[in-house]
TrEMBL record:
One of its GO terms (cellular component) is cytosol. Residues 340-439 form the Glutamyl/glutaminyl-tRNA synthetase class Ib anti-codon binding domain. Residues 317-324 are annotated as: Interaction with tRNA. Its EC number is 6.1.1.18. This is Glutamine--tRNA ligase. L-glutamine binds at D67, Y212. It is found in: Cytoplasm. HAMAP family: Gln_tRNA_synth (MF_00126). It comes from Photobacterium gaetbulicola Gung47. The keyword Ligase applies. InterPro entries: aa-tRNA-synth_I_CS (IPR001412), Gln-tRNA-synth (IPR004514), Gln/Glu-tRNA_Ligase (IPR050132), Gln_tRNA_ligase_bac (IPR022861), Glu/Gln-tRNA-synth (IPR000924), Glu/Gln-tRNA-synth_Ib_cat-dom (IPR020058), Glu/Gln-tRNA-synth_Ib_codon-bd (IPR020059), Glu_tRNA_lig_a-bdl (IPR020061).
Length: 554
């Protein structure tokens, strides 16, 4: 990571500074704890940059820990994708990858400890009854009739649960805390349940699985985490986090701190909803370039640096807010404007014939970046037949239209000034060919007689250009907060993908997947990592050249 990525500050870093200054801690150890039940999204990137970024800046450690206590929803495919995405973002976890499931034996032991202390009991209320007994925010809960079982009986029943002698949903282990607590999470939360499911790490060894709140704090303590950073919805759970650690024999007391999660306009961030988009084929997989997933953004052409920059710009606070899509886009635009080589591609081609040009292609040397000579140049063939963008030609136009007009001149980027002499149309009135002449004295200089040619348009040789499928993306949803819609699927933007059959300059045949180019005047594009090949080029538009979002009124 470059030095220019200056160190951010936020309330969590201030807490860490204070803890180091007071000697409460001598080093910092954080963790990023995804549940492997989906692919990571841009919200996770915020948490990753925060946790791994802190470890980097304080010479501390950050663990990657899979919070894997829900075997039915989890999968090894997600484990692999998460590792990949964290690395791609530019971060390395400390030591081995951790799994909460590594601690199942220890967690079981702590559950026994709570039972022995009279702080946990096996309950047999049905899930419905349990809900009813729990009470409401304004009304205290009721004690389960099973709450006062003896320690011996609890141990015996918990053992049966563990041995597979109890059906799912018939019994569970609950912490005995306070059924009248104003914090619902403290009303005797379930800490173990029966699930006859094969786990991606532990196979069929277990048929009881610990709940998140019981597992998370203990995993943190076992790993020696100093600052356990999570999102605001876990604020109340902090009571339970501390209660568990206060009541078991463990010699580490991590502290939990909460920050507000990232919400982005015009997209959803819930893994359940993203999963639904994938399984119902509403998008083409988790890495569809329209998805807010790390793998989708990557495939679309976002760079790791642009995502880290975004996370830095949005900052870390406790205020809930929703970020505009334009702020994510300006990060990638800033990066690519600096770093993406230029190239030419025509997305919606119309043919131009240069009638006074004969013979072989002339190879023109064109700079790869207007202000970065160190990025070199490439050879672009200029030939008798070319393509330009349909929208770059008009039979008639006023002075504001600085492109090609019948009877007028325009400059072809990196090449000559041409003049449109006449056109040919098909029977439906569509222009099929624009016949032009070129001024062969205008390569890299203005016409000698002082004629002013204002417009510059891009072009590709028709003879040597290469056909390419070009995918243009729009926002995936039509409303700023699709998550709030009754049915988020109903607000999917039917025009979120437009496929163009374009032509690109020959040098792009060798474009590496995910490596961005600025297609002159059209935006930033990269070859698709899944579908593009030398035989059939496919490019994704990462982002346009200018912010078009801000102008769209709703
Ligand atoms: P979901 O509720 O959709 O399943 P999650 O938050 O439970 O998502 P996890 O895999 O548990 O997903 O998240 C791993 C870490 O990433 C957690 O610490 C979580 O707080 C953080 N995280 C998840 N979503 C966001 C977000 N939108 N902004 C910031 N951090 C997030
Ligand atoms: Mg979670």
């Amino acid at each position: 990571m470059s030095e220019s990525e200056a160190r951010p500050t936020n309330f969590i870093r201030q807490i860490i500074d204070a803890d180091l200054a007071s000697g409460k801690h001598t080093s910092v150890h954080t963790r990023f704890p995804p549940e492997p039940n989906g692919y990571l999204h841009i919200g996770h990137a915020k948490s990753i940059c925060l946790n791994f970024g802190i470890a980097q800046d304080y010479q501390g450690q950050c663990n990657l820990r899979f919070d894997d206590t829900n075997p039915e929803k989890e999968d090894i495919e997600y484990v692999e994708s998460i590792k990949n995405d964290v690395n791609w973002l530019g971060f390395e976890w400390s030591g081995e990858i951790c799994y909460s499931s590594n601690y199942f034996d220890k967690l079981y032991g702590f559950a026994i400890e709570l039972i022995n202390k009279g702080l946990a009991y096996v309950d047999e209320l049905s899930p419905e009854q349990m809900r009813e007994y729990r009470g409401t925010l304004t009304e205290a809960g009721k004690h389960s009739p099973y709450r006062d079982r003896s320690v011996e009986e609890n141990l015996e029943l918990f053992e049966k649960m563990k041995n597979g002698e109890v059906e799912e949903g018939k019994m569970c282990l609950r912490a005995k805390i306070d059924m009248s607590s104003p914090f619902m999470v403290m009303r005797d939360p379930v800490i173990y349940r029966v699930r006859f499911a094969t786990h991606h790490q532990t196979g069929d060894k277990w048929c009881i699985y610990p709940m998140y709140d019981f597992t998370h704090c203990i995993s943190d303590a076992l790993e020696g985490i100093t600052h356990s950073i999570c999102t605001l919805e876990f604020m109340d759970n902090r009571r339970l986090y501390d209660w568990v650690l206060d009541n078991i024999t463990i010699d580490c007391q991590p502290r939990q701190y909460e920050f507000s999660r990232l919400n982005l306009e015009y997209t959803v961030m819930s893994k359940r909803k993203l999963n639904q988009l994938v399984t119902e084929n509403l998008v083409n997989g988790w890495d569809d370039p329209r998805m807010p997933t790390i793998s989708g953004l990557r495939r679309r052409g976002f760079t790791p640096a642009s995502i880290r920059e975004f996370c830095k710009r949005i900052g870390v606070t406790k205020q809930d807010n929703t970020i505009e899509m334009s702020s994510l886009e300006s990060c990638i635009r800033d990066d690519l404007n600096e770093n993406a080589p230029r190239a030419m591609a025509v997305l919606d081609p119309v043919k131009v014939v240069i009638e006074n040009f004969d013979g072989d292609a002339e190879m023109l040397d064109v700079a790869n970046h207007p202000n970065k000579p160190e990025m070199g140049s490439r050879q672009v063939p200029f030939t008798r037949e070319l393509y330009i963008e349909c929208e770059d030609f008009r039979e008639e136009a006023n002075k504001k239209y600085k492109r090609l007009v019948l009877g007028k001149e325009v400059r072809l980027r990196g090449a000559y000034v041409i003049k449109a002499e006449r056109i040919e149309k098909d029977e439906d009135g569509n222009i099929t060919t624009i016949f032009c002449t070129y001024d062969n004295e205008t390569l890299g200089k203005n016409p000698a007689d002082g004629r002013k040619v204002k417009g510059v348009i891009h072009w590709v040789s028709a003879e040597q250009g290469v056909p390419a499928e070009i995918r243009l993306y729009d926002r995936l949803f039509t409303v700023p907060n699709p998550g709030a819609a009754d049915d988020f699927v109903s607000v999917i933007n039917p025009e979120s993908l437009t496929v163009m059959n374009g032509v690109v300059e020959p040098s792009l045949v060798n474009a590496e997947a995910e490596k961005a180019f600025q297609f002159e005047r059209m935006g930033y594009f990269c070859a698709d990592s899944k579908d593009s090949s030398k035989e059939k080029l496919v490019f994704n538009r990462t982002v346009g050249l200018r912010d078009t979002w801000a102008k769209i009124g709703d």
